[in-house]
Amino acid sequence: MASMPLSRSAFIASFIFALAGGLTLTLNDYFVYVVTIGAIFATLAVAFDVLLGFTGYLSLAHGALYGLGAYACALLTARYGLSFWAALPLCGALTGAAGALIALLAFRTRGLYFAVLTLGIGLIGHQLFLVLPGLTGGVGGFVGIPGPEQPAWLPLRTTIYYALLALGLLFATLMAALAFVRSRLGAECLAVREDLTLAQALGIRVASARLAAFTFSAVFAGLAGALFAAISSFIAPESFTVLGTGFQLVALVVVGGMGTLWGPILGAALLTALPEGLRVAATLSLLAYGVLLLVFIIFAPQGIASLISRGARRLGGRERAP
User: Fold this and answer.
1) Nearest 5°: CA angle at 115, between 189 and 41?
2) From residue 93, how far is each of 90, 97, 222 by CA, in Å?
């Protein structure tokens, strides 16, 4: 999808999301909840793929950025009385600004040092959620967050309305990501990923490309966090840990397929549905999750997206004989 013309990608994505929205209307509340959470994590994964898949930089601070968006939404709506729709863009702007500051600091380093530095920022962010009870509720969490206002002319169950909002945010994120990677900044990000030294020698704006990718990723991580807080009505620091959300994002993108944008959506769908399908045996769920990661890293390092693309080429008879 990342290599298709934008209009064709938008048409295909519109059809798929309309189909997903229609199917959601037929589900019971439990499966609607699974769709909602899966769509929120898919939004995070697509935003994260813009940074990891198109610049090659691994950030472990995105769990904290996701949490920042969630707590900002909680404060703006529950403490200061803003509506969800007024708070949502403010949350995106706040996390975008925070992401830009982190990027300015972190891009002084490269490779492993970049990952370790963002790991430190992610840990600091999580600790701040714990030690600032006046703002975040501390260990006990933040309760009583108002949900998104539902229009009176839309007579849907609240759970379905929330699921459609999550799918809508995922669609908007995917379209914005497709537009970004097709822009000049997106091409410069790819050049940075392929060969940083050559990109600098060619006069490519390395700093602005990396800063734009990180800021883009942070904005949509914050929007996903804000929607998560609003539909959950309760948030706590354990939802935004580095070892939880931070590494989970890496897994979603790796399993789905880095640098494809639509692959991480499939990764999020698979890795959200798997624990729910094995809920009766939590130990087996974690075991299956780990085994799945190992299988993909060893046998399909380019993720689900590459497997589907390869299968489609074979069906179309375009794959060359060995």
Assistant:
1) 75
2) 5, 6, 8
Q: Which single residue is written with the structure tokens 């380093």?
A: 109
State the Cα–Cα distance between residues 46 and 43, nearest whole angstrom. 5
Over the range 249-265, which residues count as b (16 or more CB within 10 Å of their CB) and which as e? bbbbbbbbbbbbbbbbb
- Whether the model clears a pTM of 0.85, i.e. scores above it, the answer is yes
Q: What is the bridge-based pairing of β-strands 234-235 and 142-143?
A: antiparallel
| Per-residue pLDDT tens digits for 228-240 | 999 999 999 999 9
Tokens linked to 290: 């780990």
Cα distances from 101 to residues 24, 61, 214, in angstroms, run 39, 12, 10
Are 196 and 206 in contact by the 8 Å Cβ rule? The answer is yes
